[in-house]
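User: Sequence for Phosphodiesterase below. Tokens please.
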Amino acid sequence: MCTGPLPCVFIQEFTRSYLRDLRMQSRDQSDWAVSRLNTLATRRRSVLTDMRSKDALSDIGCVWDLDMHTLKEKVPRPLVDGGFLLLSPFAVSPDVSINPQVLRKFLVEVEKAYKPNPYHNSTHGITATAAARCPPALPFTMECPLKFHVARTLFATELSSSSFASADGFGEVVGRNTENRLGDLEEVGLIIASLCHDIAHPGRNNNFMVNASTPLALTYNDISVLENMHASLTFRLLCDRRLNLLGHLHREAFRTCRKLMIDLILSTDMKTHFDQIANFRLRRQSEGFDPVNNDEDRQRLLEMVIKSADIGHGALPWPAHEQWCLLVVQEFYDQGDEEKRLGLPVSFLCDRSQHDTEFFKSQIGFLDFVVKPLYEELEAVEGMLDYGPERPVRTICVQNLANNIAQWKAKEEGERRPLVAHGSSGAEEKADLPE
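Assistant: Structure tokens for Phosphodiesterase:
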């Protein structure tokens, strides 16, 4: 967890050393390219200064109880800036070598591709990414991304580890067992997959796509229609040389990362949710389950991680959770309205006319039977790894989840129901929370 603001001296040293590294990598480039690198470093210094003054981005990937809608008021483009914060450390990774210029261009295009839906928008994309990268969801030793970036830069400039460790706690590693680490390639794959897992979401679910015989449903033969589209579009962007932040990978490494990302995105199809949890539980309870040293077990766990991040609002504190629920039900009701206009069967939870009788019941059922079993599996894995006494899944996520269930039950018993206006515009916006 981030322990405090980044000292100015470290911002200045970071900016100088970061630019120095980029210049060394760009000696054969034109003056124009070097000028662009200067601009990039200046922008990054501005972002870091903004984090220090507003405490805006520094919690992404470090703090679970992060209200992205509040953060968006300070950082208008959280997916671009937050994604840059999470992925830019890999500019100096020997395994990945992400080009920061290409990274920012890629993130801008990803943000553009997200549609202004009430729920499935770019804010959801970065929210899920921050959750997937945060220690409670990811039971591996992870460094806070801001510290991670400063650490790598400071080590690259050969500053002593002792001086770094004394810098206001910025040498701290989140987690306990330092052997439980993801490789850089896996971490990058998880972050990109999380950022793009709902890219270009049309605000309609797979059931609508299939029933309406949309071109996407015909393209993907009614199988995980949206998830296949999200994965395909992600790699269409990466196939653009201007946007291919994985361009430095060798062919085999790229294929490995591509397969991981596709599998992670496809795993977010809720149609396979219960089968995935059941299969994971069987494997976890079997002899030899080892997500640290067994590649297949680790991928199974990463699929649980991205799934838990995708529906992670259920384990957020009540105000943020309630707001996300109001936004998703807006999107559901808009779909139901369109299904009625088209003469299609109204999908489950999408009938606006059933709001008064079904809303609270559906929220409780979703948390109890969909979200809770997922976090129970993460909690079990957390117990297998050396997290020490902290156990963040148990002490943060599971407690938030239990509180949210209790809140919905209390509302079901007589509190005023939140209103969802008929025929919402579909624009991304904050829902009005009930008093």
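The domain at 56-141+176-412 is CATH 1.10.1300.10 (Catalytic domain of cyclic nucleotide phosphodiesterase 4b2b).
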